[in-house]
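Structure ticket #2291
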Amino acid sequence: MEIDVFCITPDEELFSQVRENCASTRRWAKSVDPHDGVAVLVAGGPSLRSRIDAIKYRQEIGQKIFALNGVCKLLNDNGITPDYQVLLDPQEFLTAYIGKAKEYLVASQCHPAVLAAVPDPVLWHFAVAGIEEHIPEHDDSYCMVGGGVTVGLTSMCLAYSMGYRTLHCYGYDSSYENEASHAYAVPSFPAELIAHMPTAGERVTVTTGGKTYISTLCLTKQAQNFPKLCDDLMDMGCTITLDCDGLLWAITQQNLIAALAA
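Resolution: structure written out below.
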């Protein structure tokens, strides 16, 4: 099934936020040379609840924790201060996800209220069509970060641009466990968002490998795109591990089986 995903924020509003944020933020992310650091990318799937101790251990041995969206608060509640919180979406309600982190990696398309709510953010540029026309001259280099669709996929590319070549992915389930889509409580979508996107959060049924999963269109697209992104990053020198359950794990297994059989 082909799924087309697009941003519901109008381009005019999105690029206005890019211009405002670029003018007000002094630190921009840039591409750096590969190094031996290890990135632990923590998404919010339900399986994350049973992996907290593993993430604590990884931080204790010096690996860097990237908390994606609302995962930051969940990790805080479990005694973990992530090295980075990564924020991507352009809507103002994202402020509800902000927790305590050592650094904040905020996309230039985010609502200015998100940047105002965190100390000294590092701005990064999501590679959406047309954005470069709205990025002003900068006194240092900067990078455009691809990946697309979700903060989970894009964060893998962001970590790559920051020089990480070993990526450990947690909580990328992309499906429900019982009635939970995430390991933490997800705020309700604002009414104005629902008005523009009636299918926001709407559940879909997906079958793969003989098993059925409950997901959303956006999360299903993430699960579909994950194996290809991994292939691309591994071709560029990355080592990637995946520790989760759900739809994305099942699709990744199916792709691996097919590749080994080819």
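Closing remark: The first helix runs from residue 11 to 24.
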